[in-house]
TrEMBL record:
Entry keyword set: Hydrolase
Domain Nudix hydrolase: 33-166
Xref: Pfam families: NUDIX (PF00293)
The protein, known as: NUDIX hydrolase
Organism in which the protein naturally occurs: Pseudoxanthomonas helianthi
Residue spans crossing the bilayer: none
Domain of life: Bacteria
Molecular-function GO term, any one: hydrolase activity
Length: 183
């Protein structure tokens, strides 16, 4: 059966995920606000990159990530930029004057319909402790930009899982999408 034309069969329907089978293809769908998550690329006024550390149940391991969250999971109709600023503040205690959408693309196109939006947050100001909401246990790391790649490599060596999108986010700190240096 052709997965392009076969009807989808729902085999599980949860709060945030739906499992589908289409032909022989099994995949997950995000069920909120278009299946979109935002990753926030944020550098503090003293030139430190903001990372978050948290235990991720699917991996059964601690991870290092850039702050991120689902778009529209709390406030229906919230823009990507508004969601990014809200998630940045909730997870890290930093807020941003501006949020700029850089690009959107699939996270794992063979497994899920989820897309991720890279958002650059600028004009950062510390407003709280961060750490996430009551269901999260987030540790905030602020690493000098010049040391960020080496720090991430060390964390990987210590057994942390690193989201591969970190490397794209680091590149986006200093570059425009066309590859030209960011001023």
């Amino acid at each position: 059966m052709n997965p392009k034309t076969a009807p989808a069969k729902t085999v599980y329907d949860g709060r945030y995920l739906r499992m589908q089978v289409r032909g022989t293809w099994e995949y997950a769908e995000r069920t909120h606000a278009g299946g979109l998550a935002a990753i926030i690329v944020a550098v503090t006024p003293d030139d430190k990159v903001v990372f978050v550390e948290q235990f991720r149940v699917p991996l059964q391991a601690p991870t290092i990530e850039m702050p991120a969250g689902l778009v529209g999971d709390i406030h229906a109709g919230e823009s990507i930029e508004q969601s990014a600023i809200r998630e940045l503040e909730e997870e890290t205690g930093w807020t941003a004057e501006r949020a700029e959408l850089l690009m959107t693309g699939p996270t794992s196109s063979g497994m899920s319909n989820e897309r991720v939006a890279f958002v650059r947050a600028t004009g950062l100001r510390k407003v709280g402790p961060g750490g996430g909401d009551g269901s999260e246990d987030i540790t905030v790391h602020e690493i000098p930009r010049s040391e960020a790649a080496a720090w991430l490599a060390r964390k990987m060596g210590e057994g942390y899982e690193l989201d591969a999108k970190l490397w794209a986010g680091l590149w986006m700190i200093d570059h425009n999408l066309d590859g030209t240096p960011r001023e």
